[in-house]
Fold ADP-ribosyl cyclase/cyclic ADP-ribose hydrolase.
Amino acid sequence: MEAIYYKKVFVVLDDVDRLDQLNAILGMRDWLFSGSKIVITTRREQLLRANEFSKVCRVENLGDEESLELFSWHAFGKCCPNNGYEEVSERVVRYCGGLPLALKVLGSSLSGQCLNVWKSQLDKLKTFPEGEILEKLRISYDSLQDNHDKNLFIYLACFFVGSKKDFAITILDGCEFSTVVGIQNLMDRCLISIDKSNNVVTHHLLQEMAREIACQESPKEPGKRSILWNHKDSFNVLRDNTGTSKVEGLKLEVCLLKEDKFMSPVFGASRKRCFEKFLEKPILSDLGCSLKRYGFSMFSSNLEATKNTNPFVLEANAFGRMRKLKLLQLNRVHISGPYEKLPKGLKWLCWHGFPLKSIPSDFPLESLVALDMRYSSLKNVWEGTKFLMLLKILNLSDSPNLTKTPDFLKIPNLERLVLKNCASLVEVHESIGCLERLVLLNLKNCNNLRKLPRSIGMLKLLEKLVISGCSKLEELPTKMGNLESLTVLKADRIALNESLSTNGQVNTMQPFIRHWVLKPKRSPDISWTSLPRSLVELSLAGCNLSDNAFPTDLRNLCSLKTLDICCNPVSSLPDFIRGLTLLEKLSIAECPRLRKLVGLPLVRSLYLGSNELLEEVTFGSFHGPKTACHLDTWDHEGKTVGIFKLEPIGNVAAEITKSLGLTNLESMGNAIVKLSSWCGREKQALPIQGCHGTYIFSAYLPGSKVPLWFNFNNLGSSCNFTVPSNLDSRVRGLSVCSVYELSGAPPEYYWKQDTHTYLSNKTKGLIWIHCPEVFGFGEAGEDITWLSYWKFGKQLLEAGDELDVSVFGGAFVQVKEVGVRLLYNKEQEEMSSQSANEESVSLYTFENIIRGNVSAHEGRTRMDLSLLQPLAFRFASYLTHFT
């Protein structure tokens, strides 16, 4: 330590693993000279949470281009693949999934090999992962403190990757894991992660490592392993009856069995023909996982009932010695009884394509925590009443023959009941009201269901109710207002035509619900109670709600944050929406009669796509939102567009035009520029327009050269420079000028083109991206100049900062030159002073349209509208050409 005592040093400490190591390092800070830097790398994220650091950076996987370059340096000694090796190199890169270690190892091992060796190695990797890679990846696994976390990782990697975190926790808690803390420990070691959708995620090479660890438990005798994840191994064990009490988890998917040497000894000639016939049936086609060799597809929501196929038959006796089996995952398998031979300790039974009409009475269900029989042939789940104290999840979705639910009286701990796409379901048992712990009830697309049991109003803990697509519903329970925990109600496509009401009390209403057809035979009188005030998300999309039939008294939904009323024939904003003060997200797209949205609450997200007649959007408050307001519209392609306003450039305030270097507007004469917008598909030739957008003003005009006024410029699509010092003033903003040409685009693609500007302050690590709402283009071969003015907040751009400005476009946009001019406070004040002495013909000043500055926080994500004034963004005059 004396060597660095009170010296300015740069210290890098790699792979810190223990808290005492970290504390020793941090204790050095007081000994070092000011300006010293300490960089620490660790596999344990938890270590960082206990201490304060100036900056914490998570190392992400490489992107495709970076991965290919790194791999190429190790495989070819240069930055790109050799001729003829491009396709196979991309396959290797996809396999590595952005993991630098894998890219280096495989690149080095394949270097100098012929193309056939490369292809053979890739085929081998499908079955035998690269040992050197797995050995190094295993360091994090081996560093786990106990067998509990190690076993939990194996279970998660083999069975629950892609599953919801809560789902995995429910099942694994039933297997006597301490799952919550275990998952946190695994996340701390970066072995797994939880994505934004709350799914369990791990790198596929880590998953392969987990599978390999499971196999190494008994390499030669699969029946002595705790986890059988490979369908071939599972089949061999069941065929040969070699399972043991070691087996705790098994999965078998018939659709993955191959017609090769493996299958030949399994079937005699006649059974093999039956199996081939079975494989010809379409299986789960809508996810498009096609196995062309067998002529069938997997994962269809329209799975055929297995009664018309010759399913793959196994004997229940094969499970007899697997007394510790807890997790059983089967797909399209037929097991012949006696079913009492199945393990009685099963916690999770996932049996897709269950071939029987009813679960046999000797089937051991008593220990189940989760029962998943999607795509089954069930008509009646089971006979009589089953006593299932431990069952928490029941999923019978996509069972086309199911007509009624089971009796729930003796399933008191059920938490999630999912019955999606059960087209024949006509009855939900009245005993559902006894499910005091039920939090989810999903009846989506049960389009023959005519009523719900009145006892649903007794579900005090129900949080989410989905009845979307239940188009034949004739009544809803009268006590829905008692669902005091209900936060999400999805009622799309159930054809309401009267108002609902909510006043916080149990009041009866008399709306009408009609069948989802143009001319219903009748509109029965239905009694509804008030919707609970606890609702946070409500979806009434496609309910055929016109202005007169729309709910008019829902403003007492005081907790509502998300509302979807898309695909309804309304012509204006329903009155009740104005009173939803907490509303954050409003979707009102694809409403063919919608013309005006007047007095909108200041939501964060507004989706307005495909409203062809929409003319006006206004906000009800004369004050801006307390936080940034993000306003989007979405067209058929899913392109994001902000609310904006166009006006002739001559009407724009002089302060703005001078900030773009436009000091002599008369010289432009009657110049015409073609504009298109993501709000509509039409293009229109117009006089030069100014576009007031999100913080940024822009304009398109004819021109093939960046003016000299832009003192930083460069040929090509980017410009890099260091902000010079200016002792008299600080940077207030900047103007960007780019010249591009639209060439080779078919007319039908003009509206799909766009440009966007990428600004990066490399010194401060700040990034802004501007995607303008309109796009300008000229005749074929004609250059267009795009100008934009950016107004910055304090200290976001200072002397010495390295700035990178890049302009990108669509497939047919060629950017030729980019220029930048920095604008300082003093210069801006002079412009404002001159503007004050001139008569301005602008309808709105710059501060009215773009109030506030581009901030560091907002710059990291998408641009947001801040402090929007109550302006009428009229889609009239020039804007009507785009809607």
About this structure: Residues 130-207 form one domain.
